Amino acid sequence: MKKLFTALLMLGTCFSFSANAISIDLIANQSAVNIGNNIEVQVRISGLNDASAPSLGDYDVNFNYDSSLFSFSSIVWGDAILGNQLDLSNFGSLQESTSGWSWLRISELSVDSAVDLELLQKDEFTLFSVSLNAAAIGSGTFSLTTNAVGDAYGNDVLIDTINSTAIDIRGVSVPEPSSLLLLLLGLVAITVLRAKMSQPKK
């Protein structure tokens, strides 16, 4: 009887973990921009358990972009509203970023205790945000590849899906003259023409 109970408990645990579909989404603050404009792409994780395992303890990812269309500006760590969910005790976290042609390698390791991560970490939050500048006309895709993702105890975390995002870059549009301005120019031209015609011939 005891063995049966243990087996059922282990089976239930397996089902509870498999029910967590953990995903990472790249979310841009705009879908289309003009050349010279700044954009921000958030990298968000979801599908963790709120106040229980699994939680996130570390990650090492590559943020991929088209460097012929975008120029990298800066990285902001953590969630703008929830704060850094890998730094719940305000001890700081180990953060590192390196860059190459069309990619950024971004990693972070929490120094919080496993208990704090599992009890206090939210189930969905922004890992970091990348700011870039639109440099040329075209359509660029931002994607993410994972090198390593770990839970509060350093065990591997399976990421089920990673969703990319795309942004269109347009040329700076030149505004057309308004109808009122065209009408005023027409009236001025007519007035000048009439004034010249009314002048006596020598």
Describe the structure.
The protein has helices spanning 2-18, 114-120, 179-198; strands at 23-28, 32-34, 38-46, 58-64, 70-77, 93-100, 103-110, 124-134, 138-150, 161-163, 165-170. The protein is elongated and about 100 Å long. Residues 1-18 have low confidence and may be disordered. It is α+β, with helices and mostly antiparallel strands. The strands form two sheets. It has a six-stranded mixed sheet with strand order 2-11-9-4-7-6, with no helix packed on it. 22% of the residues lie in helices and 41% in strands. The longest helix has 20 residues, at 179-198. It has a single domain (23-184), classed as Immunoglobulin-like (Sandwich).
CATH first level: Mainly Beta
- The number of helices is 3
The count of DSSP E runs of length 2 or more, i.e. the number of strands, is: 11
Percentage of residues assigned to helices: 10-25%
Strand order of the largest sheet: 2-11-9-4-7-6
**Biggest beta sheet summary:** 6 strands, mixed
Global Rg: 28 Å
The assigned structural class equals alpha+beta
| Named CATH topology | Immunoglobulin-like
Q: Note poorly predicted spans.
A: 1-18
Whole-number count of domains: 1
Which CATH architecture? Sandwich
